[in-house]
């Protein structure tokens, strides 16, 4: 069944590629993509070894930092047959990782990332989760991904590629420590979406609004409206420690809002401030590193929201601080939304 699905997908994408007139693609703005293929998982469990060929999937979302460099969040799935605790069922050998994709030539690219290794249930093979917790539990650890690909079709708004990918994971499951690698061959489709509204002005507004929401959230944690055990990867074990962490977090976010306010005034008045730019660059790096830290959250909600929040924040700060040759300073002079 899996082989038939793969063959149909490969034929469909190939037919789409060769039935369209090829164009020179413009890699700019946001990136969305998905791929399907076949993987061969080589797993080592505490009491046995397992290898199997099965379905491989991946998804990615990110932003083009340059025409040949993209910052991505990638989700990589290799399905395998699990025969441990409970019934025999399918599970996911996966990696969720911040990644960098680099185009070596116009059509050849490489990608690498490090993040969260996952052993998780496959959604279409979950039975009686209320009676058996093992049906829906997921385990995490270290995950690494590397890939190389070739874009054999390039359209105006999307491209189709063929990729070879390998993932590694080191995860503690119920039975104990499990490690493994999963090489895969996939065919994928990727879209590039450039929104002209995401200029420095808009990015500043979005970032200040986002930080305001984050401060409100931390205030709710500080005053125990939201349980503190669901944040900070579950590592805070006392109210006093929580208050220290939350106070520091609120102050850091408030400082960043103040820095962004100064940056807005500088842009409006066509002034460059190297110190302010340097501080924002620091936050670009910190938010990117925070994305990796959020991979080890104990709560699935904190895991997903934390990664998206820090990755989006890193991209917005990068848009705010990057140099642009064709920017029109007057566009900011007519907008005094943040003027004191």
Structural overview:
By secondary structure, the protein is α+β, with helices and mostly antiparallel strands. The protein has 2 domains: 192 residues, Porin (Beta Barrel); 134 residues. The protein is built from 6 helices and 8 strands, in the order H-E-E-E-E-E-E-E-E-H-H-H-H-H. It has an 8-stranded antiparallel barrel. The radius of gyration is 23 Å and the shape is flat. 31% of the residues are buried.
Output the structural class.
alpha+beta
Helix content percent band: 25-40%
CATH architecture level-2 label of the largest domain: Beta Barrel
DSSP helix count? Answer: 6
Query: What proportion strand?
Result: 35-45%
How many strand elements? Answer: 8
What is the end-to-end distance?
64 Å
Which descriptors apply to this entry?
340 residues; alpha+beta; Porin; 2 domains; 8-stranded antiparallel beta barrel; 37% strand; flat; disordered C terminus
């Amino acid at each position: 069944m899996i082989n038939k699905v793969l063959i149909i997908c490969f034929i469909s994408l190939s037919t789409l590629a060769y039935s369209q007139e090829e164009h020179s693609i413009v890699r700019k703005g946001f990136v969305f993509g998905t791929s399907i293929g076949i993987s061969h998982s080589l797993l080592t469990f505490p009491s046995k070894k397992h290898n199997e060929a099965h379905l491989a999937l991946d998804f990615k979302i990110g932003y083009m930092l340059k025409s040949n460099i993209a910052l991505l969040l990638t989700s990589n799935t290799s399905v395998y047959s699990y025969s441990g605790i409970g019934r025999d069922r399918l599970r996911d050998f996966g990696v969720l990782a911040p990644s960098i994709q680099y185009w070596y030539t116009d059509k050849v690219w490489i990608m690498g990332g490090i993040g969260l290794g996952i052993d998780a249930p496959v959604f279409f093979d979950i039975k009686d989760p209320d009676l058996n917790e093992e049906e829906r539990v997921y385990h995490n650890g270290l995950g690494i991904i590397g890939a190389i690909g070739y874009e054999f079709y390039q359209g105006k708004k999307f491209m189709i590629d063929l990729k070879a990918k390998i993932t590694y994971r080191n995860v503690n499951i119920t039975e104990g420590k499990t490690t493994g690698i999963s090489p895969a061959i996939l065919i994928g489709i990727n879209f590039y979406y450039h929104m002209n509204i995401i200029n420095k002005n808009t990015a500043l507004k979005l970032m200040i609004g986002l930080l305001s929401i984050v401060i409100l959230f931390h205030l709710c944690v500080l005053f125990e409206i939201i349980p503190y055990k669901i944040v900070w990867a579950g590592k805070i074990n006392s109210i006093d420690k929580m208050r220290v962490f939350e106070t520091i977090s609120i102050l850091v976010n408030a400082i960043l809002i103040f820095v962004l306010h100064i940056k807005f005034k500088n842009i409006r008045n066509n002034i460059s401030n190297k110190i302010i730019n340097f501080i924002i660059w620091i936050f670009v790096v910190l938010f990117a590193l925070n994305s990796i830290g959020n991979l080890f959250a104990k709560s699935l909600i904190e895991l997903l929201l934390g990664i998206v929040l820090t990755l989006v924040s890193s991209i917005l700060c990068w848009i705010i601080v990057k140099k642009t040759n064709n920017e029109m300073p007057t566009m900011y002079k007519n907008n005094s939304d943040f003027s004191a």
